[in-house]
Amino acid sequence: MTEQPFVIVGAGLAGAKGAEALRDQGYTGPLVLIGDEPDRPYERPPLSKDYLLGKAERDAAFVHDEGWYAEHDVDLRLGTRVIEIDPRTHTVVQDDGGTVRYGKLLLATGSSPRRLTLPGADADGVHYLRKLPDSDAIKATLASIQRLLVVGGGWIGLEITAAAREAGVEVTVVESQELPLIGPLGPELATVFATLHTEHGVRMRMRSGVERFTVGADGVSGAVLADGTRLEADAVVVGIGAAPNLQLAAGAGLRVRSGVVTDARLQSSDPDIVVAGDIAEADHPLLGPGIRVEHWANALNQPAVAASTMLGGDAVYDELPYFFTDQYDLGMEFHGLVRQDDYDDVVYRGDVEAREFVSFWLRDGRVVAGMNVNVWDVGEPIKALIRSGEPVDVARLTDTGVPLEDVLGS
Ligand SMILES: Cc1cc2nc3c(=O)[nH]c(=O)nc-3n(C[C@H](O)[C@H](O)[C@H](O)COP(=O)(O)OP(=O)(O)OC[C@H]3O[C@@H](n4cnc5c(N)ncnc54)[C@H](O)[C@@H]3O)c2cc1C
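Above are the sequence and the flavin-adenine dinucleotide SMILES. Below is the predicted complex in structure-token form.
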């Protein structure tokens, strides 16, 4: 009997890393990687940062060299959408009518931007950012306009805002909450980002919502806010978050909540289907059940565990969530997991005014998350503090004279 291939659905970062991990871990059987985009797998963070700013080449975004897939005997099927997975017959159905039988399947379908359905939202000049061509279109737009309206003060909206300001474009950000990023960071650090952008001349309209877009002969011309304010703009970028692509998983009868539910080995409710990246809602040995994050590092690191599970191994995914951003001259890294209203205090080490500091979120006197802003090479001690689960002496934690590695020392 011929061996059924291992199939990976979704050729983003998690899919590409899944193929790499399977080969690295010794899988020599047939391997199919199916993705609906025309480009081979690439990383998305540059699309709102260096690539958008024209500081990085397109090639730098790709996960592997063009020849890597053939060299590793990976049957890469681009521009091909999977429309159905039948776990009973172990069959994947493609939109071109082709079918593939699988032995094991890795599902890594990622996310899609949430869309606005307001009047005018379909007009020319209203952009979303998820894919390479989106970034190309926004880059070309920034080179030719004077006024940009950004809807949504999340990570992507603010990174595009920074890129637009660097291109000399006037920017207004409209955000429904009282501060940008208040959801992922809480009000203390959200204020740091709000100040950063106002200092760079961005008009921040908080607690505001777009009611409709105005449209002229050349496309979108502005927006009317819920309070009646009219804003003029030559283009709009909508960054109101992303939703995981769960249709295939749900159609296959897998257990789905905010993502595809998995155990710590990233195995779904079907023993032959594993999950990685944005869509995985996984049990985490340290953080508890049902952890789903839309982070680059997750898509980078989870596939090695998913591959191990496909090969019968018992590795578990226990990395702490990690996120980074670059805006103007602010670079930051974030370790851990914090939700608004789910911590007691934020304390600082370093100079917040100068935007050179580490902030720590505390719950019950323990560090649950840490963010280093323009301070580097502190990821390991921050992670160690979170992992220890021990109460910290705040005076030592915030004293730059005490090495972070020694904070728990005495
Ligand atoms: C502009 C931008 C900037 C970002 N910046 C950061 C950052 O600074 N730091 C950070 O931590 N994270 C960042 N992220 C998030 C990070 O990129 C994602 O978490 C990561 O891409 C998730 O990888 P993934 O492989 O799970 O999903 P994706 O990258 O979404 O890849 C999934 C792939 O599967 C394809 N697919 C979906 N359904 C099907 C189907 N039925 N058939 C075939 N193919 C299918 C999709 O088209 C896509 O190509 C950013 C995201 C964006 C969009």
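The first helix runs from residue 13 to 24.
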